[in-house]
Amino acid sequence: MTDADAVHDGEAMSDLWDLDDPLAAAGLNDEIRERLGPLLTGDRQPARVARIEYGGCHLVTADGRRPGVARLGRTSVYDDDRSSTPLAVGDWVAAEYDDTKDRLLAVEVMPREQRIGRRDPSRELLEQVLASNCAAVLVVHALDRPLRPSRIERSLVLAHEGGVEPIVVATKADLDLPEEWAAVQAEVPKGTPVVAVSKRDGRGFDDLTSLLPAGRTTALIGESGAGKSSIVNALLGAEVLATAAVRGSDAKGRHTTTARELVPLGGGTCLLDTPGTRELGLVRDTGGLAAAFVDIDELAIDCRFANCRHDGEAGCAVQAAIEAGEIADARRRSFVELRAEIEELDEKRVAREQRIGEGRRPRG
Ligand SMILES: Nc1nc2c(ncn2[C@@H]2O[C@H](COP(=O)(O)OP(=O)(O)OP(=O)(O)O)[C@@H](O)[C@H]2O)c(=O)[nH]1
Ligand SMILES: [Mg+2]
Ligand SMILES: [Zn+2]
Fold first, then answer.
1. Which of 3, 199, 257 to mutate to test the pocket of ligand 1 (most atoms within 8 A of CB)?
2. Which ligand 1 atom is at minimum distance from the Cα of 140?
3. Which of 148, 155, 128, 335 has its CA nearest to residue 228?
4. Most Cβ neighbours (<10 Å): which of 195, 325, 358, 359?
């Protein structure tokens, strides 16, 4: 496929939501109705954020996909959650028309059930939510490019940290790259599904379809050119999202997808496509690290010291397992590296709170 094949997706996306019951297609169910209920006072109606662009957003309402604007001044939820993104694609909101009756305002956000949040690239102590209210996430990697060390492990930590079930997807399996496929599998602990797919020959998509949580939303994350939008199109059975060829020289993507976008598959099952992300900084750890490294976490029970850091201590069961060839040292190194990244940020956060406590101006 060449750039010339890239289609513009704005209008096609609106058509996708031209359904009898768009809210049901967006995944509205009894549970969400109950959580949204208290926010729906007066003339407010339920809506889901389908896309956010500079200057506005698109909301799925009972009438289909409509342009909207965020007006979150009066929200309570948002106030409690200032360290995060005010409005994210996938959010369920209470919406109302403004006085002119032609513009929809998102006025209050339902507390997020799950989220994929990375470190905000411009403000490191803030979390930037890439996808909200997604039960699962496809961690997408193309086999035709180098796998940067711990890239997949990092994505798994982010997923678990947001309460999201990760599914690892290796794309371009038609290119027949067994070593690259082995490298991907090596970063995936047991219990986490990993599938290889090909848009060219169709392999893997039945498996992938059966892994998607029905009636819920599955987000896609990965570098530009990984094949995320191609997966969405394959699962939709239609070329709705724009895709474009990667650069021949280094297989780098061209940042074809420019906005996060919610796509209905039917029956309330949705996909949430995102633009390629190179940076996936970790924000904090409240259990995501252990979940992404269950192998290390289980071995740690047998370490001599309860607070063993698996980094050269005597009687370390992780080290013993490496020497016995049961797990790769690369696994341990990734774990230590990702933990260090989180700890560094925790220290900065503490220092920032101290500065605020002393009445000084916070930085970052
Ligand atoms: N050979 C092969 N090429 C694929 C496959 N899947 C996707 N591609 C190609 O990979 C390129 C990038 O695919 P996209 O779907 O645009 O990638 P993306 O992850 O959405 O990229 P961004 O939107 O930039 O983040 C396109 O040229 C696709 O045709 C596959 O299974 N096999
Ligand atoms: Mg894309
Ligand atoms: Zn240890």
1. 199
2. 19
3. 155
4. 195
C-alpha 328 – ligand 3 centre gap (Å): 14
Burial label, 8 (beta-carbon count in 10 A; 0-12, 13-18, 19+): exposed
Q: Please, which residues have CB within 8 angstroms of residue 300's CB and are 6 or more apart in sequence?
A: 308, 310, 317, 318
The mean pLDDT value for 91-114 works out to 91
Question: What does the alpha-carbon distance between residue 309 and residue 297 come to, in Å, rounded to a whole number?
Answer: 11
| Ligand 1 pocket residues where CB is under 6 Å | 1, 171-172, 174-175, 198-200, 222, 224-230, 243-246, 253-257, 275-276
Over the chain, what is the mean pLDDT? 90
The answer to whether residue 364 sits within a structural domain is no
Q: How many domains does the chain have?
A: 3
Q: What distance in angstroms lies between residue 124's CA and the mean position of ligand 2's atoms?
A: 25
List the beta bridge partners of residue 127: 119
Give dist(CA 266, CA 26) in Å, integer: 8
Same domain? 138 vs 263: yes
Nearest atom in ligand 1 to 175's CA: 1
Residue 61's pLDDT band, with cuts at 50, 70 and 90, is very high
**What global pTM score does this model have?**
0.92
Domain membership of residue 54 (yes or no) is yes
Atom nearest to 254 CA in ligand 1: 24
* Shared domain check, 123 and 78: no
Q: What is the pLDDT of residues 325-358, one digit of tens each?
A: 999 999 999 999 999 999 999 999 889 888 888 8
Give the chain's largest Cα–Cα span: 71
Give dist(CA 161, CA 217) in Å, integer: 17
Nearby residues for ligand 2 (ion, Cβ within 5 Å): 228-229, 256-257
User: What is the mean pLDDT of the segment spanning 216-232?
Assistant: 96
